[in-house]
Amino acid sequence: MLDTDILFGVKLKKISESITSQIAKLLIKQNVEFEPRALPVLLVLKEKESVNINEIAEILGMTHPAIVQITNHLNKVGFIKHNKSTIDKRITLLELTEKGTRNLTLLEPLIVGIQNTVKSIINEIDSNLIYSISKLGKAIGNNILMNRVLDELRQKDLAEITIVPFKRKYKSDFKLINREWLKKYFEDEGLEKEDERFLNNPEKEIINKGGEIFFAILNNKVVGTCAVIKIDDFSFELAKMGVTEKAQGKQIGKKLALTAIGYAVDKGVVKLKLYTSEKLVAAINLYKNLGFKEKVKKDDHRYKRALIYMELDLSG
Amino acid sequence: MLDTDILFGVKLKKISESITSQIAKLLIKQNVEFEPRALPVLLVLKEKESVNINEIAEILGMTHPAIVQITNHLNKVGFIKHNKSTIDKRITLLELTEKGTRNLTLLEPLIVGIQNTVKSIINEIDSNLIYSISKLGKAIGNNILMNRVLDELRQKDLAEITIVPFKRKYKSDFKLINREWLKKYFEDEGLEKEDERFLNNPEKEIINKGGEIFFAILNNKVVGTCAVIKIDDFSFELAKMGVTEKAQGKQIGKKLALTAIGYAVDKGVVKLKLYTSEKLVAAINLYKNLGFKEKVKKDDHRYKRALIYMELDLSG
DNA sequence: ATTATTTACGTAAGTACTTACATAAATAAT
DNA sequence: ATTATTTATGTAAGTACTTACGTAAATAAT
What we know:
The structure is a homodimer.
Chain A: H1 8-29, H2 39-48, E1 51-52, H3 53-60, H4 64-76, E2 80-84, E3 92-96, H5 98-125, H6 129-139, H7 144-155, E4 162-165, H8 171-186, H9 193-200, H10 202-207, E5 212-218, E6 221-232, E7 235-243, H11 252-266, E8 271-276, H12 281-289, E9 293-295, E10 308-313
Helix pairs in contact in A: 3-4
The first copy, chain A, binds a DNA duplex through helix 1 and helix 4.
């Protein structure tokens, strides 16, 4: 089996299934009249004399409907009887019938045998195992796992980032964010004409021509952006990808790019192109990670700084 | 929860269910398009590129129909595609679609978060646990548990003892076995008249009067016997219970008595009586264990040696 | 005393698997 | 070359639970 911790639960289930099914086979060999799954309930009843449904459910860590189903079955085969409590009329008290007691007594050697064997198999592996599993059972309850994962994601703000499409109110953010990285990396060169055209008229130049602009929102503030520009019916360009410095390292670029790719796929696009610069190392790695391949530029591009050309094939 | 080793499997299942359901909740929070149970399959696919159904089943330790169901679902939501192998036309090769890859990439922070959290929760409890569980998974396969239990029972002959009702061919055994213990414990007194009557004519004196005699068979030989004698429609007597010395300690007396009690219950008997002697300590303990209560003798009984009178109430 | 909430149980429907069985293609045995 | 066996997948039905929801009785709150 794939040994990933995330699959630990799957592995536990398999072991549990294996134990349960082997015990079931042993019970069937003994021609017991009850369904094997009722054994745990019978063991509780044997121990406790008179208990109600909720108590059994709690003792076994199961839900009450499960116990209702099992006890109805045990009643039908005559192993237990149901008595309504006179003190509290909601409560159903359960106890073994004479037949139930007798049959359980007959099963005692088998039960002891299973008990001993389970214990010895476990002890041969790790004498601490039963104790550790008990602790794990207590530790993992109450959605502890879920909450810890959420906390971890929240610390990285990963859980709070939303990606939304273009709205007019984001127009200024679009310009701001792109200016930020352009200035940082290409201060000397300054903004090119093409930059100005897109940044000043995103609606006219991108949206109305069949493209889209996505914005990453964190705490109600725009922290990243990314545009998809339509070239023709089969190819779009990924451009104007930027994340504010403060918000970097939160996978925002990846989320934006993935949303953009999803958009392109929905539009039936076969090829997604992009132009970037060797200066933007992190971006290039992200693109490669997403499946973009570097190709030789076929044509001179509009931007002087763009020396690297990449393509993502979406025809699969 | 009741801390019996026999319920170890139940406990494992609960932990597994808890882990799985918490991961499912996290996935649902992220609005994934696939059913949570498909995650393990997706993780395999992410790792392996192109695999077939049986391979996934083996990697995850599940049956192939489970994988068929999950992969059909993943295909329907567009996360994977099915390709028939050209080399072997039976084989279905599975691989992630672009959409599947993209969505998995988007989930990566969550998956890493779960991975880390599961690992740390487990390590906080017992750094050896994952390894021990892995070993247990391997150790418990192939019906090892079942076979070891069967071996244990077989060593005590517990699995091989059969209880059968009276047949003529057992008549001599009935006499022999009862003589054995009568001689051992009551040598001086010798056989009483009542003994002779029952031992010499079991059919006439017991069977034909609505009673029954049970025999315990081990390796085709009679090793124990026990009679139920009808007193009236509501009360029977348990008598002539004996197990050969060689076969003692195998719970044969208990099995015989339980069969006898079952017979009485089937006949609608309300009270099962027996007379025994204080010399027979083991027998008295067995009777008590089965629910018989000692009462004061109401009448002088037929046997001089019988000083103890017991009753079992079957009206419950 | 009345109303609201909680508790104990019951029922229906869903989930995530399993076992059992069927079929076509590939491989092994004759 | 046939026939038998094995393998890879598919399908139906069963198992052992769960969640979601409903009801009546008990308890708490006003």
